[in-house]
Each structure stands twice: as C-alpha cells, then as structure tokens.
Amino acid sequence: MALPFASVPKRIAVIGAGVIGLSTALYLNTELRLDGIPCSIEVFAEHRPPLTTSDGAAGLWEPIFIDGTPVDQQMSWGRETYQWLRYLRVQKDAGEMGVTQYSGYNLFHQPVEDPPWKDVVTGFRHATDDELKEVQAPVRHGWYFVNMSCQGNRYCSWLLKRCKEQGITFHEQKINSLSELAGRCDVVVNCSGIGAHKLVGDNDIVPIKGQAMKVAAPWIKHFTVVMGADYVSYILPCTDFVVLGGTVDSGRWDTDIEPEVSRKILENACKINRSIEVCSHEISLFLVTVLHMQ
Q: What is the pTM of this model?
C-alpha cells in the first residue's frame, strides 16, 4: 500500500464513527501494520454505534443520490461494493455483520431505461406481467435481480469491535473545528458525513430525512421497491427485521417522527404485500446524507 503523503504518518485522526469512519480506521490500521509501518489511529466522534446515522440504514445495495457523479465512477464504486458484500456474506461472521443476499424487485409506475449497473448484479431481468399484477400499487414496469444487504446496526457494531481489537482509540468528542486536532496528529481523515456541512463549511452536503418503520415479518424473504409518480415505497428484509419505507425529504434537518407519515408508509407497504397488515411494528426514524458532486 502506498500512501500519498510526503512522509509516513504515524498519528492519524479519523473524524466520525459511522460506517465510513470505522471502515477507514480499520483499513488504515490493517494496511499500515501489514506494511510494517507503526502508527496510532484515533477516532473522534460525538456518537458511536448504535447511535450513528449508519446504524439506521437497512443497507440494501444500489447506487442512488449520485446523479452528478460520472457513470464510470458510479460503476467502479458500485461493482467493488457489490463484490465486497458478496465476499462477506460467505464468511464465518456474516451473521454478526448482518450481510446477506436477497432477490427482489424494483417496480415503476411507467417504463424506464435499464440501470447502468444491470451487469453488476446477478440475474437481472425485467419483471413479467404476472409479477407486476401481484402488487396492488399501479406499476407498469420492473426489474428483478439478486441484491446484497448489509444491516447497518450489525455491520457498524462488528466494525467497532474489530477496531477495538486492533487497539484503535475512540474519543466521544464532537469536533467543531479541524484546528482542535492541531498538534495531536499528522493526518486528519474527515469521515463526518452530514457533520461536514458545519465542520468544514461544505454547503454541497445536504441532509435527506428518511422516515421508516421496522416490522417483525420473518416470512418476507424478497425485497420490493416501488417508485411511484410522487412517492417511494419499499419492503426490505434484513437479518433481524423488515424495514418499511419511506420518505426522501431533501434539506430537512429535523429528526421528528411524524405519525401521519408512518400511517402512509404502512398503507403503501400493504399495497405491495398484504401480509404486512398482521405485523407488530415499531417506528424507526433515521437520517441519510448525500454529497452532491459538482
């Protein structure tokens, strides 16, 4: 591994303890030590699992919210992530990580072009007329394919444990300015996610509020995502629960759970699969962030 620094860093600070921050800390520590380079890595974060944005994610693979990114870059990132998850799902601790494989559908209210990533996933094909008729939602087109899922809270907990096993130090500290780390490290890696909006004044990073529900429905083994004319509805099976969603509210910073939104989520999910009506459920809200690439 060749790091792009003029001199080898010995003290590295990672800001953020979500999936990106933990993955970065673990990767750097592993690779540097394999290369025989002594280093100390410290993670600074206001929250750590299970209280990060990443913990709320159902974790179904699909390149989204990256319209400004060149397609070849999307495919490079997407293919590498998909293959990495395929590798993890057959490892002995796949259950602990919450990594598994599901087949399912992306359905649309009108015909759309095939996605650029159709050759990345396994078994991509168009949904048949009979398959489209199985849902009550007004859909006219769809894709069927095999996808990968990485349940956010399980994977983040696994990463946190691995980091601690490797001696990575954690500080429950909100970093308000990079200057706070002056003299404490040689390199700072910013993995603060939505926090970068204020930390470094990056106005290209905006929040997307997503409200979802977790239900106990172990009989559901396939994912379904319906892209309506003015809404998105999905049923995503995870290792421990099934996630129903959802909302995509760009620019909203609040984390209030809205009962009417929850009612609509459940109503739309029942149009996809009526067995949802008998589920016990708890309401779960999580925030996702998007970086608009200019």
A: 0.88
Between helix 19-34 and helix 152-165 the angle, nearest 10°, is: 30
Hey, what long-range contacts does 2-8 have (CB within 8 A, 24 or more apart)? Answer: 3/32, 5/187, 8/37
Type and span of the H or E element at 262 = helix 259-272
Give the H or E element holding residue 225. strand 223-227
Residue corresponding to tokens 């990575």: 168
The structure tokens listed for 247 are 């909302």
- End-to-end CA gap in the chain: 29
pLDDT digits (tens, 9 = 90+) for 18-74: 999 999 999 999 999 888 888 899 999 999 999 888 888 889 999 987 778 899 999
CB atoms < 10 A from the CB of 167, how many?
A: 10
Residue 168 to residue 148: CA distance in whole angstroms: 29
Q: Is the dihedral of CA 58, 60, 63, 67 positive or negative?
A: negative
